[in-house]
Design a protein that fits this description.
single chain, about 140 residues, mainly beta, three-stranded antiparallel sheet, 1 helix
Length: about 140
């Protein structure tokens, strides 16, 4: 009977863990509220209709929000360098399919948010309805 309960507890814990959302606990980037909508029909965002293109939307999050077409899905990340103090760097820039940190020249994949340092890019949730992209947390 103990083995059955142990198995039930183990399975419950296993299914309660989710890898669908990355942890955004980063001491370098404050948790600002983000609620942003962009229309891909507007010229400033029309590149988002094509795979592997991204745009930076300033004045949201800590240093702006990078929106990236990852092919079938869209990713949104904060443009602040995740492994640097918030005031030490300017906003990251887009370099092809990567975001480039101005301080340490580390590149982070806009497909995964990973860059080989301790913290990945701070990711936001994305919903797409037609040509509207809604980014929020």
């Amino acid at each position: 009977m103990k083995k059955i309960w142990l198995l039930i507890v183990f399975v419950s814990i296993l299914f309660s863990c989710s890898d669908s959302e990355r942890s955004n606990n980063n001491p370098n980037i404050p948790n600002y509220s983000v609620n942003l909508s962009v229309d891909m029909n507007l010229p400033a965002y029309s590149n988002l209709k094509f795979v592997s293109n991204g745009v930076i939307v300033p004045n949201f999050g800590a240093k702006g929000v990078i929106i990236f077409n990852a092919g079938g899905t869209y990713n949104a990340f904060d443009a602040a360098c995740p492994n640097q103090a918030i005031n030490s760097c300017t906003a990251m820039t887009i370099n092809g399919i990567n975001a480039l940190c101005s301080c340490d020249k580390t590149e982070y994949s806009l497909f995964t948010g990973l860059g080989g340092k301790e913290y990945p890019l701070k990711q936001y949730k994305v919903e797409v309805t037609g040509t509207l992209i809604h980014v929020y947390n």
